[in-house]
Amino acid sequence: MFVPPPLKLTNKCERCGLLYPKKEAKCSHCSDLSDQEVIYLKHKFAKEQQGNANLGKLLLFIASIIALVMMTLIY
Questions:
Q1: CB atoms < 10 A from the CB of 31, how many?
Q2: Residue 15's domain spans which residues?
Q3: Over 80: is that where the pLDDT of 16 sits?
Q4: DSSP alpha helices (H): ranges in the chain?
Q5: DSSP 8-class letter at 4
Q6: The pLDDT of residue 68
Q7: Average pLDDT over residues 37-45
Q8: Less Cβ crowding at N or C end of the chain, within 10 Å?
Q9: How many whole angstroms from its chain centre is CA 51?
């Protein structure tokens, strides 16, 4: 069975590291920013990613507690 390779519809910006649509000639995130503003953008994005990771860990913990409670109620 033939499975086609996934289409790459985005490019990763060399300057800021974020993804932007391949159809655009330049990055829509950082093309109009100064170097200092790009550093701030990278820091802000990294902070958001860390917050999302922490939220994911919290939701996994809550789901585990709920599963344990449900298993104890069944038996």
A1: 14
A2: 9-20+31-44
A3: yes
A4: 35-74
A5: P
A6: 95
A7: 93
A8: N
A9: 10
pTM of the model: 0.62
d(Cα 1, Cα 15) in Å, to the nearest integer?
40
Cβ atoms of 20 and 11 within 8 Å: the answer is: yes
- Asked, for residue 39, whether it belongs to a domain, the answer is yes
Write out the two tokens for 10: 């985005």
Is 73 domain-assigned?
no
| Token digits of residue 37 | 């503003």
C-alpha 14 chain-centroid distance: 17
User: How many whole angstroms separate alpha carbon 56 and alpha carbon 63?
Assistant: 11
Q: Residue 1: pLDDT above 80?
A: no
Residue 5 structure tokens: 């390779």
Tokens of 54: 């922490």
